[in-house]
């Protein structure tokens, strides 16, 4: 899947890009089912909300064949490779279920500041690409972006609760002064969202009865591998094997075989 010049321009301008309807309804159904199966397990890679509902399932491509197969799908690897211009490895893989009624917020932040300060990633030559497993509306915990914020580079911040490097509120206030300084990444289930490591983003809690499950893969250029990991391996991977993109049919056929 090649990005068009207009999509590249859109990404370079805003720091994020939504690609509608990339994965089929059948593939999404398999991913939803697998997300439900793995988040029933109790293991250190699965972090929970205060209520006990799953918040983040880290590194599940290491123990789930469904997510392992997905992690090299060309529809995810190729557009990131195109933007970064180099062979990639997987820095992080996770599912954020943002469950109905209970899914808590993610305060404003940039991802690269954590990759740099806590993992020792040299440069912002890494990015997230995400698959919506549900229709994502403005109301059920969609990601919000400050368009163009990636152009400001890394904004230093001090660790907050759970060592998360949420932005200092004074920096957020300086950046968001009117409603039009925020854009919301919505889309149908099966759509894909890509965003720059320095893109300022966050998401509100999900108080609706509509779940908002999203799978995130963070790919980094192989030459940009992390140098000083301080977080567990399941959060910041410490093996840097190049990802070889597999044609969409590999995942589609595997998903189909699980449905029959
Ligand atoms: O899933 C979300 O709502 C936001 C996730 C996020 O920004 C993160 O995990 O860094």
Automatic annotation (TrEMBL):
UniProt-recorded Gene Ontology molecular function terms: 2-oxoglutarate-dependent dioxygenase activity; iron ion binding
SUPFAM superfamilies: Clavaminate synthase-like
Signal peptide: none
InterPro entries xrefs: Phytyl_CoA_dOase-like (IPR008775)
Keyword entries, A-Z: Dioxygenase, Oxidoreductase
Cofactor(s) annotated in UniProt: Fe(2+)
PANTHER family named among the record's database cross-references: ECTOINE DIOXYGENASE (PTHR20883:SF48), PHYTANOYL-COA DIOXYGENASE DOMAIN CONTAINING 1 (PTHR20883)
Protein name: Phytanoyl-CoA dioxygenase
Source organism of the structure: Caballeronia telluris
